[in-house]
Amino acid sequence: MADDALILEHLKSIQATLARHGEQLTTVIERIGSLERNVAALHVDFANLSSRTDSVDTRLERVERRLDLIPAE
Description:
The chain is an all-alpha fold. The protein has one helix and no strands. It has one helix at residues 2-66.
């Protein structure tokens, strides 16, 4: 009978440990989701910056052509 009580005690301990690990896993999953959203936002920001850089490059070429700093195409 003492063996049954000992086994039950160990099983309860294992169950409590699994519950804690489940809670920690949920937290990790939430944090990973947050990181994924932040990375997606960075991709959007990078695309916007690339677009703005292209726009500035186009405008600079136009100014250089008007000032005859580069040959017209």
